[in-house]
Amino acid sequence: MRLTINDLDADAFAPFGQIIGQPASAPQDGGPGWQWWGGLAQMPGPGAYAIGHLALEPVAPRFDWAERHAHTYELLAPTTDVVIHVAPPDHPDDLGRLPPLDRFRLFRVRAGQAILLHPKVWHGAPLALTAPGHVTVLLAADTGPENSRVVRFGGEVLEG
C-alpha cells in the first residue's frame, strides 16, 4: 500500500491533534533577537503542560535580565544552535534575589538537543547564534506570576 504525503494543515490534522508553531498573531513579549508566544496549547494529564514558542533571529549574546520559576521545570528545544545564560538557584527562599552576576554561565545548546531547567534556576530567553530559528518551550500550566520572577540586572550586561 502506498500512502500520499500530505502538507501539514490545521484542518487536515485536526482529527489527530494540534499543530504547534509560530502563530500569526503579535508576540506576547520580546527583546533583541527573540519574540515569545506562550500558552499555545496544553498537554493534559496529571501535570498539565503549557506549550510556548520562541522565534529567534541571530544577535550578539547580551543579557540584562533573568527569570526563574519557584516550583516548576522548563524544557527548551531549539531548532538551531542557541546560547542561554543560567545561574544556580541561590537564595531559594527569596525568589527575586539574583545571585552575583559572576555566578551566571553561558551554554551553547545545539539543534537537536533540549535542556530541562530545574525549579529556581535563573535563566532567560536563549538567543540564536548564526541562523534564525525557533524554540519550543514546555512549562507547567500553572507557571504564572505567583511562581515566577523576572529581574533586570540594574544596568549591568552579560556578554558572550
Largest sheet: 6 strands, antiparallel
Gyration radius over CA: 17 Å
Overall residue-averaged pLDDT value:
87
**Cα separation of the termini:** 53 Å
Figure out the total of helices. 1
Q: List low-pLDDT spans.
A: none
Number of strands: 14
Secondary structural class: mainly beta
Q: How would you characterize this protein structure?
A:
- With 160 residues, the protein is mainly β.
- 2% of the residues lie in helices and 41% in strands.
- It is built from one helix and 14 strands.
- The protein has a six-stranded antiparallel sheet with strand order 1-2-3-12-6-9, with no helix packed on it. Strands 7, 8, 10 and 11 form a four-stranded antiparallel sheet that branches. The protein has a two-stranded antiparallel ribbon with strand order 4-14.
- Strand 2 and strand 3 form a beta hairpin.
- The longest helix has 4 residues.
- The protein starts with 9 loop residues before the first helix and ends with a strand.
- The model has no long low-confidence stretch (mean pLDDT 87).
Descriptive key words:
mainly beta, single chain, 41% strand, 160 residues, 1 helix
Condensed summary:
With 160 residues, the protein is mainly beta.
Summarize the SSE layout with pairings.
Elements: H1 10-13, E1 29-31, E2 34-43, E3 49-56, E4 62-63, E5 65-69, E6 74-78, E7 82-87, E8 105-109, E9 115-117, E10 122-123, E11 127-128, E12 133-140, E13 148-152, E14 158-159
Antiparallel strand pairs: 1-2, 2-3, 3-12, 4-14, 5-13, 6-9, 6-12, 7-8, 7-10, 7-11
